[in-house]
Amino acid sequence: MFLNALTKQNPALIDGAIKLLQDGLILPDTYVIDVDQFKENARLIKAKADEHGIRLYAMTKQFGRNPVLARMLVNELGYDGIVCVDYKEARQLHQAGTKIGHVGHLVQPPSHYIPFIVSKIRPEVITVYSIEKAREISVAAQKANREQSVLLKFFRSNDQLYTNQEAGFPIESLEDIFAQVAALPNIHIEGLTHFPCFLFNSKTQSTEATANIETVNVAHRQASELGYQLSQINCPSATSCETIETIKQFGGTHGEPGHALTGTTPANQDGNQPEKIAMLYISEVSHHFDGKSYCYGGGYYRRSQLSNALIRETTKANTSEIIARDKIVNISNEDESNIDYYLKFDYPCAIGTPVVMAFRTQIFVTRSDVALVEGLSGNSPRLLGLFDAQGNEVTHG
Fold this sequence. Notes:
The chain is an alpha/beta fold. Helices cover 27% and strands 27% of the residues.
């Protein structure tokens, strides 16, 4: 999906990742992240957000809940905290000492973990879409002797809700829901949210607002007419330099960049976005079967839109000169119901040949390693650390 953009925007990442693999510093099934480019992307997004008065919670699940990158975003680059897609991400990054900004959206915190979240993690906001969860948060906040801010999520019949992620209060119940939640002790209604507020349109080749963001607007207007003063209108999905101005136009106050931090938003397939590709996936050929090459898997994501890979073959021209040749091959996981032990392509090449891919991913649902590398643009790569898909540091030696 992003291989063309990768070769156009960040060829040094390809060279650096292959060298790390060939030197034995990383193994196949590793996502390699160019930390310098990652930080530059984060700065660009933050500058655009500051220009339009938008605050940012960073999403880390896409790049493996990585604690080093999370701390950079908050402590060094000025992001307002991390948005945790679920309670396990909140647990992981809290243990790493990272400021948590938003919990509960997309996954609600479970009943027996709410007291810890409220009393110890203390996120700025928790999204709720049931009165029962709001009551549990209220009880926990009373015991912790603090006030917990929450976001409410409303929907209309024409909204876009992903399968098995359907959630929210019907907008027709807004007045009653606001009244019930506002009456709970130690709860403060901070604002509203929805998801997805933006989606990429392949026909227009741009990222556009969905009906969901209009629903947030309607809910905000109705709440204001009822006398509620809301300070956060959170409009997540595809937050990037491309969408921040639109967030502002729709009355939003917060965005949650994730893929944009690694330059892997759908809008960047051709490499024409300000955020440049900062992440790739690397493997190597394991074996052959029936004239096909099989490389190690583990990082495939079924919505990845993976279609091709770059292989680097080497030959000896003479006793001292080695010639490297890059070739683009079609690659696939032909049956998405199967575990991705391997990916295969119709081109026989030497076992051990590096295979580079760049596709849409969610690292936290993979078995992959994550390698953080800096100094690539100066041709002096340095491995900062190696982590698993959940953000735990690992070694393979």
